[in-house]
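pinned: reference chain
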Amino acid sequence: MRRRRQVRRWAAATLFALGFAGLLVSLSFVTWRQSRAFEALANLDHVQREMALAEADQVELQRRIQQLASRARISGVARDRLGMHVPEASEIVLIAGGGP
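pinned: its structure tokens
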């Protein structure tokens, strides 16, 4: 009888130790998984900030392209650099086109 009690105590202690070890392993896994999730969220935030900056640069470049391609700018550059001017009515020559 005494031997049986010792075996039961030993079995209970072993089960308790295994359960406790399992709990520690589970908590460690949860902690590891959450730290990975926080790291992924930080990376996502960084990428989102980079995308926002790139989109702002793209908008600025599109605005700059529109400004550079505007008729007013092109006319000014043609006048200043090339000495061109907008033709008057007497300078316009119409050529009859003989289409195909």
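why pinned: The first helix runs from residue 2 to 68. Residues 2-83 form one domain.
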